[in-house]
Amino acid sequence: MNSSAGLLGNMSYALQIFERDTFTTAFIKNLIMVLVWFSLSYINSIVVATFFMNRVFYGNPRYILFIHMVINDAIQLTVTITLFVLSYIFYTINVSFCCFFILVAVFTTRTSPVNLAGMAIERYIAICNPLRHAQICTAHRTYTLIGFIWFICVVPDITDLFVTLATESLSFFHTRVFCLRQNVFKDPILTYKRQAFDIIYFSCVFFTLVYTYLRILFVARVLSSEKQSAQRARNTILLHGGQLLMCMMSYTSPTVETVLRFILPGHVLEIRFANYLIVYILPRFLSPIIYGVRDKEFWKYLKRVYYSCKQYDIQIKPTESPLLFSVTYSIL
């Protein structure tokens, strides 16, 4: 259940791809990854702009946690796709840079499921204990929670760097390697440590999401007076649960991949590429859908920002001097 190793294995499996993929296959896979990055970056930029351009969201813990997740996922996506493309272009990179990329990818990958568990707890308090929600879930406590999430996600894995600094010579960090976690953090005890922490993370997040969402589902059915609103509440909860489940698949993806490779031994590269897209990319598409489209409050402001960007028309007209121009702004 080594999620971090699984991430970097799926992300940087070009060691085998580089030898077996044709130029056309390699080009198509890299093109897919770059297009995915551009698409998600465009969506995330609108979502982030919507949050920061409307102060109404600043004090809402639900949207604070949401925008933290969006920014975290954007960083994770950028780092992993950068390594994916670099593995084709340069094959090997400097160990110091590799350490930086790996640690950022691991930190952000671990943070997403834990952040979603925090969002589940916030929704649980809002629906099951609404009278105390404003008192318990304040903006200050939300930022404290985010700091705590980063602490518990960074500390276990930053020790890999300290162990490597203690066991490897400084010259090692000036060499070039194919950027895989096991090629940089090579001490065998680190593998067992990662497996132990993956089990702990998986168990805590799993029981948190199961308890909170079952409670939310029960309360939503009891309190919803209209069938349509009850159906909408159930659909939202199911989408949340699906997103959490897919993020939690990062803890078990190496095991699932091993099983699939055993069942379909002739499709190793396709399995790894599909596994990366499903486990690490698809959940990043669900966040804007759940909070951007289905959330009426956020969707209202998101449409304003989107159409403002569309209406922002800059027209450069020829003048007597090439250095002079006139700019026309039309903003909603």
TrEMBL record:
Residues 43-291 form the G-protein coupled receptors family 1 profile domain. It is found in: Membrane. Keywords: Membrane, Transmembrane, Transmembrane helix. InterPro entries: GPCR1_Superfamily_Member, GPCR_Rhodpsn, GPCR_Rhodpsn_7TM. It comes from the Eukaryota. The keyword Nucleotide-binding does not apply. GO terms for molecular function: G protein-coupled receptor activity; odorant binding; olfactory receptor activity. The chain crosses the membrane at residues 31-52, 64-83, 89-109, 142-166, 199-223, 235-253, 273-293. PROSITE patterns: G_PROTEIN_RECEP_F1_2. One of its GO terms (cellular component) is membrane. PANTHER family: G_PROTEIN_RECEP_F1_2 DOMAIN-CONTAINING PROTEIN, ODORANT RECEPTOR. This is G-protein coupled receptors family 1 profile domain-containing protein. The lineage of its organism: Eukaryota, Metazoa, Chordata, Craniata, Vertebrata.
